[in-house]
Amino acid sequence: MKAAIISDIHSNLEALQVVIKDIKKRRIKRIFCLGDLVGYGANPNECVEMCMKEADVIIAGNHDWATIDKTSIDKFNPIAAEAIRWTRKNITRQNYKRLEGLKLTHTIKELFLVHATPQKPENWNYLFSLKDFQGQFSNFRGQVCFIGHSHIPAVVFQDANGYTDFLRDNPFPLIKNRRFIVNVGSVGQPRDLDPRASYAIYDGNRRYIEIVRLNYNVLLTQQKILDSGLPEFLADRLMIGK
Ligand SMILES: [Fe+2]
């Protein structure tokens, strides 16, 4: 099986279009989406509809659940909360219902898909440090867990002895006796100081995973955010990837 794993689109249609086009150009047939289709950007409906059309599996993210009031925005920063209120006003009933139908995890062969963490995914915790990742390996089966949520691409492996470390190689081989947690980064709002859209390719036959970065029309996305009345900061951050 070969698949593309996308996450954290955040209503950024220009970035999503570029990513989907690249996936199709590579003739990858399957797309798994790890959630946060909406929130922050100006095209929630277009992004929900495009994900529904293109993705084989879609997992719920915290912004998806916040939009449908399934998770509280109390823990959201004021700008993120404002974007959720804007999204609630602008999303169609049909797309609202589509967000209600998303599930928290999905297992497909050796892959485990979740938005935030394998352990208690509904708590929306963040994995940043090696210690954060270490505690998660006992909470999923299979060789690879794909996550999003932090908007920062990262790969952590654990060997048969329990040794855990970050992996900097890209692409990297799916070595036997190693398990992996892969943060695929964000399509629509990268935060690793690289503004390019991010997604991952999984090749189960050739046994490798690759993180792909792509330029898109950031200026157009920014203009849409400014025109929509969303907070200006949400436009500014896209150019610097923060
Ligand atoms: Fe997100």
TrEMBL record:
Gene3D superfamilies: 3.60.21.10
GO terms, molecular function: phosphatase activity
Domain Calcineurin-like phosphoesterase, residue spans: 1-203
Domain of life the protein comes from: Bacteria
InterPro entries referenced in this protein's UniProt entry, alphabetically: Ap4A_hydrolase, Calcineurin-like_PHP_lpxH, Metallo-depent_PP-like, Pesterase_MJ0912
Segments passing through the bilayer: none
GO cellular component, one term: cytoplasm
Family: Belongs to the metallophosphoesterase superfamily. YfcE family.
Protein name: Calcineurin-like phosphoesterase domain-containing protein
